[in-house]
Amino acid sequence: MNLRRDVFQAIADPTRRNILILVATQAMTAGAIAANFDTARPTVSKHLQILTECELLRQEQNGREMYYHLNAAKMKEIADFIEPFRQMWDDRFNKLESIMKAYQGNQ
Amino acid sequence: MERKTQVRAGDGHQDICITREFDLPLPLLFKAYTEPELVAQWMGMRVLTLESKPHGSWHFQTVDAHGNIVFQANGVIHTFIPDRQIIRTFEIENAPFGVQLEFLDFEALSATTSKLTMQIIYKSAELRNKMLQMPFAHGLNLAHNRLQTLLHQ
Question: Long-range contacts: B144-149, Cβ < 8 Å, 24+?
């Protein structure tokens, strides 16, 4: 299985990105995470399952509750980490350039 | 060939420096940062507020296909010098990255080309690294074609 591919698919979804940002501050239960979204609870569960399968989240039992943690080691792998960051800015600036060229043409 | 967009992030430092050269005259590049409709287009965000002046404020958000707000950020503009410099703060709402300070320097390279130098300063090196690890937290989306490229690596 190609883990790199899975990780990038996982973060391509805006809800999943928001889940990662939420648990970056503190471990949370599925219920507490779902409370932050208008999305149906089963949909959030599905997102949690995908994030757990590609190891971006870790589950940890605490008493009767299951908590989700951010798997920092995995995040480092995604990132590895300046090149993806640079590529995202490059995409954004390419867009700026083409939009402003079109704008210039219309003036 | 030299890459158009360059990123420097020194080990143990708390800042990131991004530089980019554009095939655009300087005033046009600067305009991309000051006209709300244009900012909305290239950033892919809703521009709720953008007061391009000293002590002005700004507020951006993105929504998903169902209308849920998936990203909100805000800040104030500290310095605004047309065609030269914008100094502003940037904070993502409901995220653990704190406030960052951004220095945007604009310069003309020729009549038809220009350069942007963006220095982003975080409260600590740890926060900076966290942001580098989660660039999507910055509201940056993996463009579809980029995603395809990554998927085929």
Answer: B146/A87, B146/A88, B146/A91, B147/A8, B147/A12
